[in-house]
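ok here's VOC domain-containing protein, seq below lol
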Amino acid sequence: MTTPNIPTSKLDHLGIFVPKDQFESIIEWYKAALAPLNYHEIMKFPGAVGLGDQVPDFWVSIAKDGAAPQQVHFAFSAPDRAAVDEFHKLAIAAGGTCNGQPGLRPEYHADYYGAFVLDPLGNNVELS
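and the structure came out like this:
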């Protein structure tokens, strides 16, 4: 959700690395969790899948040499508060863990509304 006086991001895309044995299940989790943003599979290469609504801006790739992924935090912008609520519901239903109920967070800024879910690998996924 864009807020006045808050600059928009110039981030083109981001990616996470997952263990080979969890590759397909993590892709399915993100498809379910990000459905409120109309995210779906756009590109696929051996060991990598690009998700997005129009362009592949979120990538899930198999970690090289079986390296254990490190947990990260990333946030997606929602078109409205209803999408934040739906993300939280779908992400939990798909096997995520609540890391912050949908709601206002005025400590970030006056109109900041977001939700946080840990994906099955422990990454902190936010929609705001």
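fwiw DSSP finds two helices and eight strands in the chain. kinda neat tbh
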